[in-house]
Batch of 2 targets.
Target 1
Amino acid sequence: MTDELDFIQSLRAIAAHPAARGLEDDAAVLQVGSETLILTHDTMVEGVHYLPQQNMADVAWKLVSVNLSDLAAKGAQPLGVLYSHMLGANDNQFLDGLREALQAYNVPLLGGDTTAGGPPRAFGLTAIGRATHRPVPSRSGAKPGDGVYLTGPVGAAMLGFETLRDNNDGDTAAYRRPIALLRQGRALAPLVSAIMDVSDGLLLDASRIANASKVTINLDPRAVPIAVPENRRDEALRWGDDYQLLFTAPDAIQWPVPVHQIGKVEECGPSPLLINGAVPQKGDRLGFRHSRSIGTD
C-alpha cells in the first residue's frame, strides 16, 4: 500500500489552485464572485471507517456528519451535498439514514452517482458550504503565545466502537452518529487563529496544526476533557472520531461557546508537538493513519 503521507505530498504538486490551500487544510476555499464557497469530500470504507455488521442507516448518518464537520471547522453554512453510493445489501436502510441526517442538518441532496462494486463497500460525499466569516480560518494561523483549546471531551467514540465491535450493552451513539458542531464553528470562526476538527486523534491533529503553522504545540494531557475512565486517557488522546473542534487563539477572549484550554503555542522547535513539555517517543502512534483498518490496534 502506498503511504498516505507520501501520496498526499505527490498530490500537492497537482493541486496548484489557490483554493486547494496546498492540501494543508480541511477543505477547499473557492472565491466565486462576491461569495466564498467551502468544499470538502470524505469517503467511508467498510472495515476501515465502519464495522461490516453496522446498521447502514448509521453509516449514512456518519458519512454526512464527518463531511459537515469539516465545514464546521471553517465556520461555514452548509448549502448542499453530492454523494456516491456503492449498491449492496440494506440500501433502503442507508437511504433512511441519509434522509434522516440531511433533515436533521437541514441540508439538501443535490446529486451524485451510484455504482456496483465491493465488498468491501465504499461511500463518498462532497459537502458544499458558504463562508460566514472572512478570512476563512485554516490550520496554518497558530502563533506563539496563543492558547490551544478544545470544544469538548474525547474518547466517547472509542468506547462506542468497542461496545459495538464486541456486541456489548452500552452507549454507541458517539461512534455511530457523531454530531457536526456547525453552530460552534460559526461562532468561533471570527476569533480563532487556526482550527480543525478532531477526526484522527487529538495528538495527531494538534501536530497537523503545528506543522501547518510552523510552530510547536505544547499540550497538557491532564487538561484535556475525556469521556473515558482515567486509566484510558492516553488512548482517548490518540483514538479520534470525536469531531470536537481543536483550535488556537489569543488569550483573554470571551468565548461564545464552552471551550477548554489544553495547551499553549510556542516558537517552532525540534518537534511540532510536545506533551507536557516532552517530545513524543519515536514511533509513538499519535493517531489514526490509513495504513491499518479499524480494530487492528
Target 2
Amino acid sequence: MLNNKTIVLGITGGIAAYKAADIASKLTQAGARVEAVMTEAAAKFITPLTLRNITRRPVVTDIFELGSEYSEEHVALAEATDVVLIAPATANTISKLAAGIADNMLCCIVLATKAPIIIAPAMNDIMYQNSVTQENLAKLKARGFTIIEPEYGRLASGKMGKGRLPETSRIIEVVERVLGQNKDLAGKRIVVTAGGTREPIDPVRHIGNRSSGKMGYALAEVARDRGAEVTLITAPAALSGPSGVKVIKIKTAAEMKNAVVEAVKKAGALLMAAAVADYQPKATAKSKIKKESTKSLTLELVKTPDILSEVAGDFIKVGFAAESENLIANAKKKLKAKQLDLIVANDITKEDSGFDVDTNRVTLIDKNGKVEELPLMSKREVAEKILDRVRGMMGK
C-alpha cells in the first residue's frame, strides 16, 4: 500500500515531535519515500539530522533554504506528494492552516497541494478543548482534511487528559485508508466477520473455539486500504479494531446472525471468516455452576444458526472451511450446500496455517469449480488474494 508512495511528513513544535522519528521510520520501512518538513519550532525538539538519517532524504526546514532541491519552487514538493501527514500538529499550526497563513514551508505545501491532508493534533488537553482550536479543526475538516483525534493519557504536564499523539500504528492505518480512497474497491460495501463465537454455559463459562480473528481482521484492513466501506462483525478477540472500519462486537452465534442480517442489506459482499460455534447449550444456567455440588456435568447441545445458509441477498458470499482431513472434498461440499460464490479452505493441522499464527496456506474454490492452491503467505497477503477474486465478481 505504501510502497513507492511519496509522503510529506510535517513536524511542528510540540513535545510529541520526538515521536515523528518512529512515524518516519515505519513509513520508510513500508517502502514510502518520506519527505520530512519541519517548522523552526520543531527543530527545537528533534534535530533534522535524526529525520535525515531515518528517511535518507534531505530535510526541509526553511522556505528560503538554498540547499534544498525544492528551494526554487516550493510547490514542487506539494505536487510530488501523494499525501501530506502533519504529526504532531500544534494548536499554532492548526490555527495558521485554518486561516490560510503561509509563513513557513509546511504551510506553503498545504496551500499548494492537491493531495489529501491528514492532521494529527497533539497538545495540552485544555488547548485542544479550547473553542478556538475546535473551530479551527472543524474548518479544516469541512475543507476535506482528515483529522486523527488525539488520545487520552498522560501528557507532558504530568496530568491525564485528551491530547496525546496517537500510536504510530494508528496513524499509519489512517494514511493507508486515505491513500486507498481511490483504489479498486472504492464505493463498495463489504461485511467481514471474525473471531470465534462464545456460547454461554453459565455466567462464567462458555463453549468456544481457538479462532484468533486474525484472518478476518486482515480482510477488513485490506478491504479498507483498497477503498471499501467496511463493517467488521467480530466475536471476542485480542486484537485492536482497525481504524476507519465500523466495528460491531458480538459474543454468540445468534448475535452474529442478527448483526450480519442488518449489515448485508446494503453490502456488495459478505466474507464470513468467523469461526461460528456449531452448537450451543440448550439451556444456560442463570448462576455459576458449582463444582462442589456436581460430581459430573452433562450438557445438552443444540445447533446454532447456520448464518451463511440462512442469510440471503444480492451480494457475494465467501465462506471459510477449516478442515483437518479431506480438505478439498469437504470444502466443495460446503460451497455447494451453502450456495457460496467462493470458499477459502485451509488445513488446520499444518503448523503454519492453523490457529494463532500470522501466516496461512489456503486453497480458493469458486462456484464454477476453479481450484487455486496458494503458497504459504502472510494473512494480509492471503486477504489481498481473496479480495482480488471478490473484486472480479462484484463488477463495476
